[in-house]
Design a protein that fits this description.
- The chain is mainly α and about 160 residues long.
- About 5% of the residues have low confidence.
- The radius of gyration is 17 Å and the shape is globular.
- About 65% of the residues lie in helices and about 0% in strands.
- The protein has eight helices and no strands.
């Protein structure tokens, strides 16, 4: 399935030889099934390969992918294989989608439940409001809620 997005044999070999290689074809299939544009899928597949290499450098397995550690890595990334691995929306979101894909195929344990349980009640209400009254998509709600959690952490106990 990677051949749909990459034609160069060297690139295909590079992607498949990495720690996440065995899972990239399935991830590519999932991206196509979800209707992602080809150039977006390429970015997400590169992000998946990148997070695999970063995880391996930390002596961890693919089942232990840590998104926070990856985001920290991206702040100073100079990986020669990353091809634009700087911290941007596509790299971060692609890594998250890949992690979610690994959870769906039971390679990684779900992490989302633990993250959501520490959200302040005000943010949980904000999520509900965005969905019900603004019709926001799950992806948009996730982004807004993440920012709301950051703001709440800065304000600590005094949100006013």
């Amino acid at each position: 399935m990677l051949e749909t997005y990459f034609s160069a044999p060297k690139m295909l070999e590079l992607l498949r030889s990495g720690p996440c290689g065995p899972y990239l074809d399935g991830f590519a299939t999932a991206l196509e099934r979800q209707g992602y544009a080809a150039e977006t899928a390429v970015r997400y597949l590169r992000a998946a390969a990148h997070i695999g290499h970063v995880t391996a450098e930390r002596d961890a397995s693919v089942s232990d992918i840590d998104l926070e550690a990856f985001e920290q890595h991206l702040r100073t990334c100079r990986c020669p294989r990353a091809k634009g691995g700087r911290r941007n929306h596509h790299t971060v979101y692609g890594a998250r989608l890949f992690r979610r894909h690994l959870e769906e195929i039971s390679v990684c344990k779900p992490a989302a439940a633990a993250i959501r349980s520490v959200e302040p009640p005000l943010v949980a209400g904000f999520r509900t409001w965005l969905s019900k009254h603004r019709g926001a998509s799950d992806a948009t709600i996730g982004l807004y809620a993440r920012d709301a959690v950051s703001i709440m952490a800065e304000l600590e106990t005094d949100p006013m």
